[in-house]
Write a structure and sequence with these properties.
Keywords: Signal. This is Tripartite tricarboxylate transporter substrate binding protein. Residues 1-26 form the signal peptide. By secondary structure, the chain is of the alpha/beta class. It folds into two domains: 35-129 and 256-323, D-Maltodextrin-Binding Protein, domain 2 (3-Layer(aba) Sandwich); 132-228, D-Maltodextrin-Binding Protein, domain 2 (3-Layer(aba) Sandwich). Helix content is 43%, strand content 17%. Helix 2 crosses helix 9 (267-281), helix 4 runs parallel beside helix 11 and helix 6 (168-180) crosses helix 11. The radius of gyration is 24 Å and the shape is globular.
Length: 328
């Protein structure tokens, strides 16, 4: 009797162990086919280039192709919405900069192009930060933010370029206007490239941009860096003060990028992608390449990106409403 019971018990334990092992084996199967990463902007810009860099490295680690698909339109909303409605199986991901958070606030989106910023996606990882820098053409007549504000208050017509109405650069420019009590005129462009071209040519006095596109012009003296929009100085440009240091303590707008998956993507897939991308971001090759875009590797837990997104939604959302910032 005892022997029979013991055999039954061992059989039950073995069956239980086998059943418990099934999810683990199933989890290890991902991915079994190519993974598509949607970039909601055209090829050629920083976002696209960083996405392709990380996708190549991720594909090597996953042993499956990771393919970039550009879906530009509606300030990024078109591609964002597409991913938000995709199958939550880990085979369709979104790589996006932080206009992901603010686009629905500054644009009049139709229901077919709308998405839930806070609850419609699974954050995977904050891949990098790209602090915003204010640069000026030397002919503008000022070399510091206090000099620029003084010129504006004295009645001089001062302008600033951004890569588009409703962009983080636009939000930062208008927030500084409010904090300083001036009206520096916003000149929106369709992308970073044209805004940089025109500030170098002197058609606009200043521009808010990421460091990568203007680094060569700073190094050659064709542009003067005035301030950093982030909370702390940029290690890639350590001599440039922050707006906070200059007395505008609340005016902080950074630029970040990261990976999201559709809501409901299995947690083990999110964890796998987070782990692989964290390792990729530790690579010296990747760090060096990111620096050419004025970007610094971030990484960390998936929840970090969720917190950053939620903070931007609250803080920048209030600025957008208070200043009535809208895209064209």
């Amino acid at each position: 009797m005892f022997s029979t019971r013991r055999h039954v018990l061992f059989a039950a334990i073995a069956a239980s162990a086998t059943l418990g092992a099934v999810p683990a084996f199933a989890q290890d199967d991902y991915p079994t086919k190519p993974v598509t990463v949607i970039v909601s902007y055209p090829p050629g810009g920083d976002t696209d280039a960083i996405a392709r860099l990380l996708a190549e490295k991720l594909g090597e680690r996953l042993k499956q192709p990771v393919v970039i698909e550009n879906k530009p339109g509606a300030g990024g909303a078109l591609g964002n919405t597409y991913v938000g409605r995709a199958k939550a199986d880990g085979y369709t991901l979104l790589f996006t900069p932080n206009p992901f958070t603010t686009a629905p606030m500054v644009m009049k989106l139709s229901p077919s192009a709308s998405y839930d910023v806070l609850n419609g996606f699974e954050p995977i990882i904050n891949t990098a930060t790209q602090p915003l820098v204010l640069v000026a053409n030397p002919a503008a007549g000022f070399k510091t933010v206090p000099e620029m504000i003084a010129a504006a208050k004295a009645g001089k017509a001062v302008t600033y370029a951004s890569p588009g109405a409703g962009s983080p650069m636009h939000i930062l420019g208008e927030w500084l206007n409010q904090a300083a009590g001036v009206k520096i005129t916003h000149v929106p462009y369709r992308g970073v490239g044209p805004s940089v071209t025109d500030v170098v040519a002197g058609h606009v006095n200043t521009a808010w941009v990421t460091l990568g596109p203007v680094r060569q012009y700073i190094d050659t003296g064709k542009l003067i860096p005035l301030a950093i929009g982030d909370a702390k100085r940029l290690t890639l440009a350590p001599d440039v003060p922050t707006l906070r240091e200059l007395g505008y303590t609340d005016v902080v707008v950074g630029s970040w990028n990261g990976f999201f998956a559709p809501k409901g993507t299995p947690s083990h897939i999110v964890a796998r992608l987070n782990s692989e991308l964290n390792d990729i971001l530790k690579s010296q090759e990747v760090t060096t390449k990111l620096a050419t875009f004025g970007a610094l590797p971030a990484g960390g837990a998936a929840g970090n990106l969720g917190k950053i997104n939620a903070n931007d939604y609250a803080v920048l959302g209030k600025v957008i409403r208070d200043l009535n910032i809208q895209a064209d």
